[in-house]
């Protein structure tokens, strides 16, 4: 981040810390599911409702909080969002029954999309022209580093001292992020003053919806493969127990590298960067299906798939181009779209497995979803060219 001044670097670091806390909470909670299921006296399928509640909270909270928070200065809104996230995780740690845990996970999911979306906008505003995508990538680095470092550590602490400590750790990280944002982030609001009516204008913008659809469909490829990776390594590859966390860490390392790659691709071209990453998803998903049964090759392939996970960056930059005065809502909806992909990919892959097509079918489903994302991206690109042509034919008065 040498291209940023000291305040900008510290601000992005404070926001990335919040993203790190969010990443730990989202992914470590999945790994600790058996432990809180046992502690609360419920089956694992019922305990999984807490995981689903978080995802629903993200989808609901992203647009709602982005619109309702548009009256507030961006710095204050960021502090409130990460503070609410921290308090919701305290509630999760104190839950005495499944109902309370499900409710607290839903509440924790509400600020997720809005915080990450507004953080990305803030990072882009602090970066100079030509490097804005790299600023956005620094925020997402918090999420990917969470998978590599935070999730294993929080999981180990949760397993050794109790699952509740995972949420306590997340709450401490969120509090640290809020305090750091309050201390170092600039108080000035960048861009035009927002209001709910301007934010809601994104809902009538076809270019915004097409960009969101690219993520909702195309990124389903990653989740179609990743969601069933552990089960496939056990059932199809007879992998040793220690190989599964290794493979999950490999994905996190790939995603960390992928953020850097995606930032540079997006600085080059928003459409071109997204296309390169989607083509990578197609090729890697097919390769994953081909090496099914060889856990070493599966681990190497999942690392490569992780490098394509930076798709959110060129799509975010595209949204900044087309959302107009609805920047906050569009950025928040971007994360809602990726959580929709988190539902779509595993669901379709699960249907293929239930139909008896074998573990390799998760890779085939992933490739099909990535191709679908390319198709939607093609429509978005064609319409963008059409708009440019029309503006040249009918110049503004």
Characterization of the model:
By secondary structure, the protein is mainly alpha-helical. It folds into two domains: 1-191, Growth Hormone, Chain: A, CATH 1.20.1250; 195-397, Growth Hormone, Chain: A (Up-down Bundle), CATH 1.20.1250. 81% of the residues lie in helices and 0% in strands. The chain has 18 helices and no strands. The chain has helices at residues 6-31, 33-40, 44-47, 49-68, 74-93, 98-126, 132-161, 164-184, 196-200, 206-218, 220-226, 229-235, 243-268, 270-290, 295-306, 312-322, 327-354, 361-393. Helix 6 (98-126) runs antiparallel to helix 7, helix 6 crosses helix 17 (327-354) and helix 11 (220-226) packs antiparallel against helix 18 (361-393). The chain is globular. The termini are far apart. The model has no long low-confidence stretch (mean pLDDT 85).
Highlighted features:
Growth Hormone, Chain: A; globular; 81% helix; 2 domains; mainly alpha; 397 residues; 18 helices; single chain
| Average pLDDT | 85
Number of helices: 18
Oligomer: single chain
Tell the overall outline.
globular
Short description:
By secondary structure, this protein is an all-alpha fold. It has 18 helices and no strands.
Q: What secondary-structure arrangement, pairings included, does this model have?
A:
Layout: H1 6-31, H2 33-40, H3 44-47, H4 49-68, H5 74-93, H6 98-126, H7 132-161, H8 164-184, H9 196-200, H10 206-218, H11 220-226, H12 229-235, H13 243-268, H14 270-290, H15 295-306, H16 312-322, H17 327-354, H18 361-393
Helix pairs in contact: 1-6, 1-7, 1-8, 4-6, 4-17, 5-6, 5-8, 6-7, 6-17, 7-8, 7-13, 7-16, 10-16, 10-17, 10-18, 11-17, 11-18, 12-13, 13-14, 13-15, 13-16, 14-15, 14-16, 14-18, 16-17, 17-18
